[in-house]
Write a structure and sequence with these properties.
The chain has 323 residues and is an alpha+beta fold. It folds into 3 domains: 36 residues, no CATH class; 98 residues, no CATH class; 137 residues, Ribonuclease H-like superfamily/Ribonuclease H (Nucleotidyltransferase, domain 5), CATH 3.30.420. It has a 5-stranded antiparallel beta sheet with strand order 3-4-5-6-12.
Length: 323
Amino acid sequence: MALLVYVDDIVVASADLESIQGVKTQLNERFQIKDLGPMKYFLGLEVARHTKGIAVCQRKYALELLDDTGFINSKPVYSPTVLSQKLSKNEGQPLEDNIQYRRIVGKLLYLTVTRPDIGFATQQLSQYLDKPTHLHLQAAHRVLRYIKAAPGQGLFFPTDSNLQLKAFSDSDWGACIDTRRSVTGFCIFLGNALISWKSKKQPTISKSSSEAEYRALAATTCEIQWLFFLLTDLGINHNGAVAVYCDSKSAIAIAENPVFHERTKHIELDCHLVREKLNNGIIKLLHITSENQLADPFTKSHCPKSFHSYISKLGLLDLYNPA
C-alpha cells in the first residue's frame, strides 16, 4: 500500500480494497477524515479511469491559466517553440514589471507534471526569471497558445503495459548561446507508459558532443537507479537490464571501453558511474537513430511537423479531443 500525503490531502493506493478501507477507518478514528471516494481530482490533477487504463491531465488548471493571462480565446499554435529562435539574456528590451512573466513560468512549471511536451520550452523560459525581456515574454505567450490547442492533453497509463523499464537519453551540445552549456534530455518508460522525463541545462561546459552525450547518459543512469529503488519499495522486482537508447556511438563506445584515456579523464566520475551500472547488468546501451530518439524534443526546438512526430510517440492522450 502507498500513501501520498500533501498537507491535509491524502491519496491511498493499493490492489486490496479491504486494506484501503481498513486504513481509512483507522485514520478516521484519529483524525476524523472525509472520504471523497475514488480519486478524480487531486491538487489540480484530473484522473479518469477506464478498462484500458488511467488518464491524468490538468485541463482545469490549464484553462484557468489561459483565462488569467487573457489567452483563452487566442489563436492556437502546434509547437511550443520557434525553430529559428534561440533565447538570450542580452536580446530584447527588459520588462518594466517582471511579475507577470514570473507568474506564467511558475504555473507552466507545475503544468509540466502532466505535460512533458512543454518541458523544454519551460526549461528555456525559467532561465530568465531575474531579468526577462519582451522576447522572453513573447516566447512564454507562444507556449500558452500551444496549450490552447489541447488544454486536456496529459499522461496515459495503459493497463496492459508490462513492467519493463526503457530509457532514451540525448543532449544538445553547446545549446545555450550565453554560456555554451549543453542541454540534457531523457525520458523513461515503464512498459508503454511515460513515467519520468527531464530537460535541464548541464552544470558545466562540455568540450565535445561526445562529452555532452555522456553527461546526459550519466544523468539518465542515476534516474534509472532511483526508479529501481522506487519499484522495489512498491514490491515490484524488475527483471533484466534496462535498455537505454542513445544516438551517439562515441558515448556508447566510451561506456563500453574499460580503459580510461586522456580524452575521458575529465569525465571519469561519470564514466565510473555508467560503467558500474553497465557491468552490474542494471542497464544495457543500444544505439538508435536520431529520427527515433524520443528524448530529442527535450533538448531542442522543432518545427510543428517534426515536434508532433516525436510527441505522438510519448504515449500522451487528450480525452477531450473529439477525434
